[in-house]
Amino acid sequence: MELKKNPKADLTKNSGLYFVIGLALVLFVTWRGIEWKQYDKTEYDIQALNVDDDLDEEIPITELKAPPPPPPPPAAPEVIEVVEDEEEVEETVIESTETNQDEVIVEVEDVEVVEEEEDVDVPFAVIEDVPVFPGCENAKNKRDCFNKQMQKHIRKNFRYPEIAQELGIQGRVSVLFTIDKDGSITNIRMRGPDKNLEAEALRIIKKLPKMTPGRQRGRAVRVPFSIPITFKLQ
């Protein structure tokens, strides 16, 4: 005889549903346990939170001092003295400058005009009467004689500086000087490659004799003159 099971009596029929419901309940309880927070009870002093006392603190009031008032204007004089205009004023008489026919006109003598001599520098190349070098008084061409005597003077007084020879220094020194209105040599200037050569050129020019000054329109004038002095090692 076979045993027959009642389908309603099958206990495993809804086991899956129950498992899912149980799992959901376990997850919910676990989540709530993790999220659960507990706060400590703290008693607050209500009087300590009262801020009315702080607001009632007295704040000192700063008084602003007003600037001092301006000084009063000076008092007007009590009595005003009236001065009578009785003083006599001398009138200024303006004399007429117009001439009268009865007046005698005095003739003024001729006034001599004195020409002031101006210091003029006339270059040696254009001056009318060149300065005369001593020894050229009777020369026909005093300009050429002047140049020859200058060269002769330089050769006669030339001396090569020893220090320039030792250092092998050579070159040309340009010399410019002025023959003044009294024939003296003034305003000597040099330009060269070395100070020792310039010093020697200055020494030579200072030995020039006094000359007869140059003349322009019959007047003695200053005459600038330039000449090169060459220093060359043998």
Features:
alpha+beta, Fusion Protein Consisting Of Minor Coat Protein, Glycine Rich Linker, Tola, And A His Tag, Chain: A, Domain 2, two-stranded antiparallel sheet, single chain, 234 residues, three-stranded antiparallel β-sheet
Largest sheet features: 3 strands, antiparallel
Poorly predicted runs are none
Give the termini distance in whole angstroms.
Answer: 163 Å
Strand order of the largest sheet: 2-1-5
CATH architecture of the domain at 142-231: 2-Layer Sandwich
What is the third-level CATH name, the topology of the domain at 142-231?
Answer: Fusion Protein Consisting Of Minor Coat Protein, Glycine Rich Linker, Tola, And A His Tag, Chain: A, Domain 2
How much of the polypeptide forms β-strand, as a percent range? Answer: 5-15%
Determine and state the CATH class of the domain at 142-231. Answer: Alpha Beta
- SSE pattern, N- to C-terminal: HHHHEEHEEE
The number of helical elements comes to 5
Taking all residues together, what is the mean pLDDT? 78
Number of strands: 5
Report helical residue fraction: 25-40%
Radius of gyration: 64 Å
Helices and strands: which structural class? alpha+beta
The 3D shape can be described as elongated
GO molecular function, one term: energy transducer activity
Main location: membrane
Membrane topology: Single-pass membrane protein
Keywords: Cell inner membrane, Cell membrane, Membrane, Protein transport, Transmembrane, Transmembrane helix, Transport
Could you characterize the architecture of this molecule?
With 234 residues, the chain is an alpha+beta fold. The protein has a domain of 90 residues: Fusion Protein Consisting Of Minor Coat Protein, Glycine Rich Linker, Tola, And A His Tag, Chain: A, Domain 2, CATH 3.30.1150.10. 25% of the residues lie in helices and 12% in strands. It contains 5 helices and 5 strands; from the N terminus they run ααααββαβββ. The strands form 2 sheets. Strands 2-1-5 form a 3-stranded antiparallel β-sheet, with helices on one face. The protein has a two-stranded antiparallel ribbon with strand order 3-4. Strand 3 and strand 4 form a beta hairpin. The longest helix has 21 residues. It is elongated. Keywords: Cell inner membrane, Cell membrane, Membrane, Protein transport, Transmembrane, Transmembrane helix, Transport. GO terms for molecular function: energy transducer activity. It is a single-pass membrane protein. It holds the Pfam family TonB_C. It is found in: Cell inner membrane.
